[in-house]
Amino acid sequence: MLIREFVDRDWPEVWPIVREIVRAQETFPYDPGMTEAQSRGVWVESPPGLTVVAVDGDRVLGTAKMGTNRPGPGAHVSTASFMVAADARGRGVGTALCRYALDWARERGYAGMQFNAVVESNSTAVELYRRHGFEVVGTVPGAFAHPTLGRVGLHVMYHAL
């Protein structure tokens, strides 16, 4: 597996991953009715941010986006988001993308990385982030409407760099 910068020709493989995850409404607080164009606008970062893909040969297994969490006085903290194709989960793709994002943030001198909305029922992601040094610093109760579990909390997670 190789992680590399997203290029335009990757979108036809990234879009189905984004579409499936967003429409499932289980892990991302994005509008499930987003169009392809809207999704691309949300997912593909402009510099100084970065969008990457994890590939095996020509196949996109997952994708991540990273950048500054907030402008101005908050610009010293980064953020990132990750999506992995359903049939590639459990193979270390998310772990590799998370490590990549942390390294990217460190190389750019960010003081930390903050995840603003980690769905608390997404135990796979929460545990992955904890293994990489993130802590839950707060939870907004009932802030995410899960399609089968009802309202669950959204964690704010932070890792000092």
Please tell me about this protein's structure.
The chain is α+β, with helices and mostly antiparallel strands and 161 residues long. The protein has a single domain (2-160), classed as Gcn5-related N-acetyltransferase (GNAT) (Aminopeptidase, 3-Layer(aba) Sandwich). Helices cover 29% and strands 37% of the residues. It is built from 4 helices and 7 strands; from the N terminus they run E-H-H-E-E-E-H-E-H-E-E. It has helices at 11-24, 36-43, 93-107, 123-131; strands at 2-5, 50-56, 59-68, 77-84, 112-119, 135-146, 150-160. Strands 1-2-3-4-5-7-6 form a 7-stranded mixed beta sheet. Strand 3 (59-68) and strand 4 (77-84) form a beta hairpin. It is globular and about 40 Å long.
Helix percentage range: 25-40%
Report the count of strand segments. 7
Indicate the CATH class.
Answer: Alpha Beta
Distance between the amino and carboxyl termini: 26 Å
Spatial order of the strands forming the largest sheet: 1-2-3-4-5-7-6
User: What is the CATH third-level topology name?
Assistant: Aminopeptidase
Question: Total number of helical segments?
Answer: 4
Share of residues in strands: 35-45%
Count of individual domains: 1
Radius of gyration: 15 Å
Task: Quickly give the CATH architecture.
Answer: 3-Layer(aba) Sandwich
> From the helix content, strand content and strand pairing, which structural class follows?
alpha+beta
The main β sheet shows up as: 7 strands, mixed
Given as residue ranges, the uncertain stretches (5+ residues, pLDDT < 50) are: none
Q: Mean pLDDT, nearest integer?
A: 97
Instruction: Give helix and strand order, one letter per element, not per position.
Output: EHHEEEHEHEE
At the fourth level of CATH, the homologous superfamily is Gcn5-related N-acetyltransferase (GNAT)
Overall 3D shape: globular
